Amino acid sequence: MLIRHTPDLRESEVTDRRLYLDRRRFLALGAGAALMGAGQAQAGPIASYAKGVVVLDDKPTSKEAITTYNNFYEYGTDKEDPAKNAPGKLKLRPWSVAVEGECARPGTIALEDLVKPHRLEERIYRMRCVEGWSMVIPWIGVSLAEVLKRFEPTSKAKFVEFATLADPVQMPWIKSRVLDWPYVEGLRMDEAMHPLTLLATGLYGEELLPQNGAPLRLVVPWKYGFKSIKSIVRIRFVETQPRISWEKANGREYGFYSNVNPEVDHPRWSQASERRIGEFRRRDTLMFNGYGDQVGSLYAGMDLRKNF
Ligand SMILES: Nc1nc2c(c(=O)[nH]1)N[C@H]1C(S)=C(S)[C@@H](COP(=O)(O)O)O[C@H]1N2
Ligand SMILES: [Mo]
Q1: Which of 39, 43, 126, 288 could cysteine-pair with 207, CB 3.0–4.6 Å?
Q2: 85 alpha carbon to ligand 2 midpoint, in Å?
Q3: Residue ranges making up the domain that contains 269
Q4: Which parts of the chain are beta strand (E)?
Q5: Atom of ligand 1 nearest to the CA of 225
Q6: pLDDT tens, 217-245?
Q7: Looking at residue 139, which CATH number applies to its domain?
């Protein structure tokens, strides 16, 4: 079994952790602040979450790298752009998410109400970008399946479509039409309902920073990074396969499924190996990013060269 949960933190540990985090926050706000780089803007600590360990023998990538080497085209196309441009620009509260389409209980729901009924847990996942680099990220979030069930999807709900905020005031960079905004992504219903699929609100024990897709982003660890859509404002249950932003931009290079697959190369980049950020030697890329035991059956009988 891949996910191994340690028991919930006991109250004393939670308290200890809260004191520890308060102290860190205090330090960060004081003398520490000057030492922090641009990407290290303050994020609130998450005081209580279940330690869920995803058993992979990888060690997490540094927080520095995770928060300064990003893809978030709404804030520029260079890796350093989101950490420079998103903090202070993206307004994180209040935040709400519209849930629409084929479900019995559609509506617009405040972020807090969307997340609160669920158990926050840590998931340490590999992330691999189709560009050929990868990281290991200790996310904190809730199971997407648990959240979606509350809206009671109907039998017509075959796919779930997600959209990022597209506000030219908070995201002036979207005036350059590199993609068709809003950024849209989608999953087949069984992929959305898979226990590995996470709605993330934090990483490394703290709330997400804007550059990582605050306050709410998807994490689908067996797919290329671009499926993990950031700063979500809309979730829609639909009957037909959504047209995702990358497919619209270049359907020959980016497919709907985008499962990590070392055997199917991207026209411009080999997918056979990857550079783990912080490492020198390239690693072999694993089928489904190493999560094949868990997710392989979702694609039984599908031609993954056609459905790339
Ligand atoms: N809205 C939005 N979501 C996005 C992107 C983006 O440009 N806009 N980039 C994607 C890509 S290509 C990757 S690799 C991951 C990067 O996530 P990270 O910066 O938190 O590592 O976010 C994905 N989600
Ligand atoms: Mo990516």
Answers
A1: 43
A2: 18
A3: 6-299
A4: 3-5, 52-54, 96-101, 107-110, 121-128, 133-143, 159-164, 184-188, 198-203, 206-207, 217-219, 232-238, 273-276, 283-284
A5: 14
A6: 999 999 999 999 999 999 999 999 999 99
A7: 3.90.420.10
